[in-house]
Every structure is written in C-alpha cells, then in structure tokens.
Amino acid sequence: MRALRSMGPIFLVLAVLLVLIAAANPFFLEPAGFLAFVKRAAPLAILAAGQYFVIVSGEFDLSVGSLVTVQVVVAARLIDGNETATWWVLALLIVIGLLVGLANGVITTGLRVPSFITTLGMMLVLSGAVFLWTGGAPRGALSETFRMFGRRDLGPVPWSVLILLVMGGAAIMLMRSDFGKRLIATGDNDRAAGLSGVRVNRTRILAFVVSGLAAAVAGILLGGFAGVSAQVGQGLEFQAITAVVLGGVALGGGRGSVVAAMAGALTLEALFTLLNLHGISGPLEFAVQGVIIIAAVAAGAVRLPFRRAVRA
Questions:
Q1: Does the pLDDT value for residue 4 go beyond 60?
Q2: Residue 269: what are its φ and ψ, rounded to 5°?
Q3: What confidence tens digit (pLDDT) does each residue in 189-203 have?
Q4: What is the mean pLDDT of residues 83-108?
Q5: Which of 231, 235, 194, 212 is nearest to 72 (CA)?
Q6: Distance of CA 245 to the CA centre of its chain
Q7: How far is the CA of 192 from the CAs of 163, 179, 186, 195, in angstroms?
Q8: Is there a contact between 244 and 51 (Cβ–Cβ < 8 Å)?
C-alpha cells in the first residue's frame, strides 16, 4: 500500500499529460498512435530501469549515454550491411555493456572512487574512443535484422514495446528478490547493511552491471530506430537520471520503485511530445530536465529531515 501511494503522483502526472496529448492530437487515442509513443519511449524507459538500480544503491551512472553511442557505432562498423554478422555482433554488444558496467562497479567500490567521477571518466573515455575510431563520422551500416528490433513490429506490437515489457518484468522480479532487498538496504545505509551481512561492494557492482546491460539493450533499440550517428546517445544519461528522480526515487539511494522510475521515463517522453506538439522543443527540453532534477533534490532535502524528525 505504501509503495502504491508513493507511485501515485507520477502516474497521475503521466495520465494528465496523456490526456493533453490526446486533446492536441486525436490520433494518439488510436492503438497505433499510442504504441508509437511507447515505442519511442522504450529505450529511455529501459535506461531509466538500469539507472534506477545504480541510484537506489546510492551511486550514479553517467556513462550510459556514451555507452549507447558506442553500441551503435561499433555495430554499424562490424556489421557493415552484412546480415550474417548480425547475431554475433548483438552478442558482442551485450558483452561490452556488461564489461563497462563491471568496470564502473569495480573502480567505484574497489578503488573507492566516487561513482560520479568514475562514470564521468568512463563517459569521456568512451566518447574519445568513438571519436578516435570514427574521426567524428561513423562508417558502415546496420543490417535489416539489427534494425528490426527498433523499427519493426511482431504482429500488431512493436518489438521495442515487447522488449520493454520483458526488461520491465525482469527488473520487477529482480527487485522483489533477495538482491533487491540487499540493494535497498545498501542505498539506505551501507554501513548498517554491511554489519547485517550484506556484501555491499558486490551488490553495487551488480547494480552497475545491470545498468550496463540496460544501456546495451537501449543502444540496440536506438540504432534500429534512429540509425547510425555519433550523437545518438548524447544527453541520454541526464534524461535517464531525470526520469528516475521524476519517478520519486531518492537520489541518495535506499528509496523508490523501479516501476515508478520507468513511469518517469514515459512521463518525460510525454512531456517532450506535448512540447513538440505545441512547437516548443530543443533547448527547452534541457531546461525542463534541469528544473526537474533541482526540484527533486530540493524536495528530498526537505523531506529527509522531516522523516528523521518523525522517527525521532
């Protein structure tokens, strides 16, 4: 019941935005129009789910945007239109995502480098590697099989929506497992969690690995949907963080729901869609994200002393 109450506001905001979009564009009410919206939002919702695992453990992951770009650029270069190369390249992209997440986790926990610095450095390393490899102009082409996941449908439902449902279901099951409980305990108070037997470092490393996996899947979907570009992942790390805090997840960790975080991504996409329908886009989107993050941090700073006072 408490979880439902905490998720209520984000679903209310999402419902209001969807009604406003439907009022501005009646096609949105048709199944094809709504599924097209969810299809666009799917990569961000998957990224937000991955980012949730890191944030709720008390850390940040700023490398996911650059990791998405790496996924798309590497895939285009290695596949280069060759259909037979698609499946092993897809497997390679998943491995790259897992390894980047593992590196972020090990450096953050093993070397005690703040995750903000670790993932910021990883973001720069990945961006530099892409630029060095491509010279700023990606080469190669994605195969039709690769692009199928971001562009095509399976029957009446887009592949992106199906993959979002699978990833969302897996994230919910993971949070309901013992790992999810350990993750929440780690983010709430890592010292107390450690004293109660939780392997804090291992839990946080796994959270970064999940985030890397989410970024890999999002990159595959975005490559299929948007095509090859060296800017495909630009700014996605901040959109994912904005979506998570919009879903009511505490930036300090230990509180929040993965369902609400994914709803936050849908809400952010709905907000951008509404702004576009009214001819407002571009720089204002960044301003909106900045306002949401500042407001969420400010609200958390106000609520935390209140909660402590209530407990006292």
A1: no
A2: -65, -40
A3: 989 998 988 999 999
A4: 95
A5: 231
A6: 12
A7: 37, 16, 8, 5
A8: yes
Segment holding 297, helix H or strand E: helix 283-311
d(CA 41, CA 240): 11
Which DSSP helix (H) or strand (E) runs through 124? helix 115-134
Taking the CB of residue 308, how many other CB atoms lie within 10 A of it? 9
Q: Which residue is it, tokens 């094809």?
A: 32
* CB-CB contact of 9 with 261 (8 Å): no
- Structure-derived torsion over alpha carbons of residues 78, 81, 83, 89, reported in degrees to the nearest 10: 20
Q: What is the pLDDT of residues 213-247, one digit of tens each?
A: 999 999 999 998 888 888 888 889 988 998 998 88
User: Which residue is associated with the tokens 């399976």?
Assistant: 154
300, two tokens: 């958390």
d(CA 305, CA 294): 18
Q: Which H or E element spans position 218?
A: helix 200-226
Q: How far is CA 78 from the centre of its chain?
A: 25
The three-state secondary structure class of 157 is strand
| Angstrom distances, CA of residue 277 to CA of 33, 274, 298 | 14, 5, 30
Taking the complete model, does pTM exceed 0.85, yes or no? yes
Distance of alpha carbon 57 from its chain centroid, rounded? 15
Cα end-to-end distance, the chain, whole Å: 23
Q: What is the mean pLDDT of the chain?
A: 87
